[in-house]
Every structure is written in structure tokens, then in C-alpha cells.
């Protein structure tokens, strides 16, 4: 069945529908990764978005049981140049098409994804709609205009109740704003006793779990849409070591008094170079974000920039000047992407140990 993608600038792309056949309206974004479509589809940070993959052939290695980043994918739709009908890989268990059907995710293939990506780069992120060919451009534009983009994505993808991933090491409370399983895997691989809590957990609820450290996860949408999370993070700074990733990084910045702003088309891919300003070392990183911390808003605050994107100079890392708290805009757990920045989990573990040693010393006296 042929369907069309209508964009709010009036552009029209006609392609073949696959996956679920329902119509959908959402924000159209693009990811430049050559591999990792399964992880991208299951990343909660893409909640309700229409994701365009710039690599031309998608689905060629199928879908397997191991590469999921969430149990229930929340991506809005998938847009590709070509969807492979006959995947070939020893781990393959089903096709991309059957997976999208099972998860009620619409797909559109056979369009010029290069042209679509250039449009987004030119105009910025665009609202779009996948709909039948019979829908006129005029009717489509009217529907796009009257359909608001969602603002409660974090509430949708966060866990509803707390749960534990037991370990015999440090107790880490992981606040779930739309957590990728890769973060949980990295913590449990280091023996951490992890307790995952909902996005709206209060500071009292977090501290009652007696954490040795708190992890602020990734997640979808505008960080300003979750003010309750900002208040919790603000109250946690100075009480326990903090490590924020992606949305967690932005929430840490807001909690410290900074501002965030929407980027023209964001960073979404697995080959973004980021420089550590202290060491000069450059890591190739996996990224997925549409908002950034405003540089000018840092003046006079107790946080400083630690990492910077080499492509556009935007802020990629922050740390508190006086407390044990830091954050990065990119994904050190990768999934998909390179693991150059995986050492940041070790930095967090070391920070926890130093904090425990100092607090135990104080208690002894």
C-alpha cells in the first residue's frame, strides 16, 4: 500500500507503507547511524517521533532478542529508503516489518531520505504526518497545524513503580526518565545494587533508599516539561554523588540554574566527536538529543563545562564546582555506537567510593 509523508513546510514524499498501517502525526527527526536500527527503535528517547534513518538499507540483519533498549518501543514511526524483506544474520528471529506490525509502529519506505534529511537540516525539525494518498495537502496542513506535539513523553515511558536489579556492590538509585537498558547493564556489570525509580520520585523517596549514588537517565522531550524532576535533582545535589546522561544532563543543568534551548535539528547518530576539555582527548560518541544547555546561562553558576562537541561547539558535559555531580549530553553506554566514553561509569564509581570514604571518616569522629 502506498502512503505519503506530509511535512508542515508543504513537502510531500510518497512511499510504500510497511509495519502498522495506521496514520500518525509527529516530529520528524533523522539518525545518521549505519547500524543499530533495533536499538534506535527501542530507545525511549524517540518517544512519539517519526525517525528517519539516513543509511539506505534498513532491516538487513533482522530483529533479535538481545539488542533491545526497552521492552515496549515508543517510537512513533520509522522512515527508510529501503526495508529489507529477507534479512540474513545468525541472530535474526524476525523481519523488521513483522516487528513493527507486532508493536503497532507505522513504517514508510521507498522515499528519498537524503532529500528529507536535507530539508530538516535546512528548515530545522519539522512536524509531519504519514497518511493515505487520498489526503490532500490542504487537509494535511490543516491537521498538522491543529495537532499539538506531545509534552508528557517522560511520564509515558518512565516506569510506573520502583524495582530492583540486585547486586552486592554500591547502591545506585537510577531515576528513570526513559532509561535505555544499556545504562542498567553498565551498572549491574560493575556489581551495583540498582534500584530503578519513576521520574517523579521525590527527594525523600530517593534518600530513603540510602543510595551511594544517583544516576539520572536519558529520556524524551523538553526537559522543562518535567519541573518535578528538576526540583528533585536540585535537592539531591550535595547530598549524594550524581551522574546524568542526556536528558539527565539537561535536568542537572536546569537544577543548577542554567537554561536549555531546542536545537535546529539536534544530534542523532553514533559518530559524534566530543572533546574532554581537561585532557584534550576526543571520544567518538553515540548521541540522541534535540535540546542543549545554553552557554550564556552558565555565567555565575556553580557548574562548568567539561566536554564540547567538535562539530558545532555545543556543550556536551558539565560538572559541579563544589559538589560530586557531573553529566554528559551523549551516551557513554552506547547501544548503538562506540564505547569510547564507557570509562565515565568508572569515574562515577570512583566518585562514589571517595564520597563513602569521606563520609565514613566524618561519622567516625
From TrEMBL:
GO BP, sorted A to Z: 'de novo' pyrimidine nucleobase biosynthetic process; 'de novo' UMP biosynthetic process; glutamine metabolic process; L-arginine biosynthetic process
Q: Name the catalysed reactions.
A: L-glutamine + H2O = L-glutamate + NH4(+); hydrogencarbonate + L-glutamine + 2 ATP + H2O = carbamoyl phosphate + L-glutamate + 2 ADP + phosphate + 2 H(+)
Q: In which pathway does it act?
A: Amino-acid biosynthesis; L-arginine biosynthesis; carbamoyl phosphate from bicarbonate: step 1/1; Pyrimidine metabolism; UMP biosynthesis via de novo pathway; (S)-dihydroorotate from bicarbonate: step 1/3
* Function in brief: Small subunit of the glutamine-dependent carbamoyl phosphate synthetase (CPSase). CPSase catalyzes the formation of carbamoyl phosphate from the ammonia moiety of glutamine, carbonate, and phosphate donated by ATP, constituting the first step of 2 biosynthetic pathways, one leading to arginine and/or urea and the other to pyrimidine nucleotides. The small subunit (glutamine amidotransferase) binds and cleaves glutamine to supply the large subunit with the substrate ammonia.
Record NCBIfam families: CPSaseIIsmall, PRK12838.1
Subunit (UniProt):
Composed of two chains; the small (or glutamine) chain promotes the hydrolysis of glutamine to ammonia, which is used by the large (or ammonia) chain to synthesize carbamoyl phosphate. Tetramer of heterodimers (alpha,beta)4.
What name has this protein been given in UniProt? Carbamoyl phosphate synthase small chain
